[in-house]
Amino acid sequence: MAKKKAEDKLVRISTAAEAAGVSKQTVEYYILLGLIEPLGKQGSQGRYFDEVLIRRIRLIRQLNESGYTLRDIRQTYLTGPSRSRPTGSQKKRRSRSPPK
Fold first, then answer.
1. What are the distances in angstroms from CA 26 to CA 2, 14, 50, 52, 77?
2. In degrees rounded to 5, what are phi and psi of residue 40?
3. Could you tell me the CATH number of the domain that includes residue 35?
4. Could you tell me the residue range of the domain that residue 34 belongs to?
5. Domain total for the chain?
């Protein structure tokens, strides 16, 4: 029988939050904002997370603590830059007249 890798181990939200160094409420907020998505619910027993999701929570926390907004994190680091919706700084650059 094959051993389960550490990444295959699923943990509940409170354990994932503790491992990532954030509160359970922070993880719930990240879910609400679409920054992370739990692996699913198993019946009524709650949401589950693996090591990959825990590392993602840590990354979000570190980026946020270094000054990035959660919106910037979602748009730039987690989904890639959006071509259809420019960010505020891109809008400003586009609205400027070319130098004479």
1. 35, 10, 17, 17, 18
2. 130, 170
3. 1.10.1660.10
4. 6-95
5. 1
Q: Is the per-residue pLDDT at 92 higher than 80?
A: no
42-89 pLDDT, tens digit per residue, is 565 678 999 999 999 999 999 999 999 999 998 887 665 444 444 444
β-strand partners of 11 = 49
Q: Give the residue among 83, 25, 30, 81 at the shortest CA–CA distance from 53.
A: 30
User: Residue 55: phi, psi to the nearest 5?
Assistant: -65, -35
Q: Is residue 14 part of a domain?
A: yes
CA 6, 12, 18, 22 dihedral sign is positive
Q: Is 47 helix (H, G, I), strand (E, B) or coil?
A: strand
